[in-house]
Amino acid sequence: MPMWIEWTIATRFLREGKSQSTLILVGIAVGVAVIVFLTALITGLQGNIVNRTLGTQAHIKVQPTEEANRVLAPADGSVHLVLESKRAQRLRSINNWQQVRDVLDALPRVTAVSPVISGPAFARRGEALESVALVGIDAARYQRIIPIADDIVAGRFRIGAGEAVVGSQLARDLGLRVGDKLRLDGGQGRDSVVNVAGIFELGVRELDARYVYLDMKQAQSLLDLPGAATIIDVTVDDIFAAREVAARIARLTGLKAESWMETNAQLMNALRSQSLSTRMISVFVALSVALGIASVLSVSVVQRTREIGILRAMGTTRPQMLRVFLVQGALFGLAGSLVGGVAGYGMVMAFNTFGPKLFYIPVDPWLLVAASVLATVTGIVSAAIPARRAAGLDPVEAIRHV
Amino acid sequence: MSDRDAGPDVLRLQGLRKSYNVGKPTEVEVLHGLDLRLQRHDFAALVGASGSGKSTLLNLVGLLDTPTAGELFLLGEATRDMDDARRTALRGGAIGFVFQFHHLIQAFTALENVLMPLMVATGKPGREHIDRARALLAEVGLQGLEQRKPDQLSGGQQQRVAVARALVTRPALLLADEPTGNLDSHSAAEVFELFRKFNREFGCAVLLVTHDPRLSEQCDRTVALVDGRIASDTAKAGKTEPRPTSA
Asked: For tag attachment on chain B, is the N or C end more exposed, with fewer CB atoms within 10 Å?
């Protein structure tokens, strides 16, 4: 076995200084446990928030570019003063959306593409009138982005001709039940009567109160945009890659592509700050663990000065002496992180079992592996200074040391 | 003895000088040019008052320290300009140390302490090395105590472990710094007898630092150090005259 003597001396030294070793081991374990628990907690929390938020929306929304006034360039040598009022953005279709859809389908990282036609309308039942958002979808494609069928609370998710699926809040407001008739009014005399085939509840009040799902054809005729799609919803495999993919789509299609990170800037900001503060805490905990290891080993070098001198006199080389202490640092880090990893895992399990149960914290086994590797490396790095001192001791001085 | 002249001298000093604080106003020369030869089977005492430079000389001979000027040959090899790695290797292989205070490593058993020079050099000890260490421990009268930790042994026993440790590599040169200074007279006599025995059996040269006249009288040869110079180098009656110390 390589470095057998270094391992042997290192482990004997650690065992001999049992109380010292135990104390620092507990210190490292607590540090690692805190890091593991905190990281798992924040990761779980963020995953939960992101899932809840993105469960009801696409990662990227592709829309037509906004209409802008075209102002003629001024003639050479003249100055134009332009007073311009922004143009109202009317509901427009994405040009050639079928081709765009096919292009997006073929893009790497994109997991689902769903063209949608969406616009405002009124829903009327008897005297009651509610403003709603018509959402015309291709059911199969849309389901891959928002699995709406899972959130059906009454009836079924079916949007054939003359059928609609409405939100639970809208159903309450209009007193609708499955099978009831509902008049949808798209303005300018375009209206139609549909059957309520199903009622969904996404848990987001705004959506539950306003969304009316139709098939694309019905929505197109109600909104007077035959054959149109106003938005293409896109999901990607890694949600944090959404911004890049959106930028790519924008470049590729010339359309406006917005990722959830931009539409939920506040959320993104909160997630970022959370991650940053977690990382800061981890770094400082790791730093204090490292300083603990370094100081314990420094004391050990002083305590063992004479033994180091004897070992040197008996032919132990400087590099061997250096490694004896590096191994001790590594062992501290490894053993401490194993104990701490188990403790941190236990804390997570306890939280999942006895905690407020607002959400579940999954523990990635790689987190434990990474913590062990990181702690071991930290141990070696923090042992560097004491180890160098041990290796640099003058044997003559060391042997005389009392 | 037949092999007395075989091979180079175990130790040869040539105009050896040692100064401390070189280049500073407090620079002081402790050894002023020593010449000395030590051969196989030599059993020499190094005597001198404290401050005469005994310990300094011993550190130089033990390759724990480097001379300021002159040369020190160990087994014919010039050592002054050796790098630390080679110096350490030579020290581990050719020199056995016995210190005044036994200086065992507390975390290891008696047997492991004896094996330490071998383990440091070659790693996990094999059967042959373990047998050798056991035999040495038996020879110093510690059979059955191999698995004891140093703090479970008496002072005399610890010093005997140290003697066994110094000899386990079958060194050409055994250096002992007041090896009995810390022992009662009975244990001291025993330890001295061990040196005698190994000097006889293995032929290793012994250089024993002492200021105990009873001990130096029993050595074959006495080198007296006075103020950093060799004042006398005398052989006991009946022993071969020491060779001229000049190279």
From this structure: N
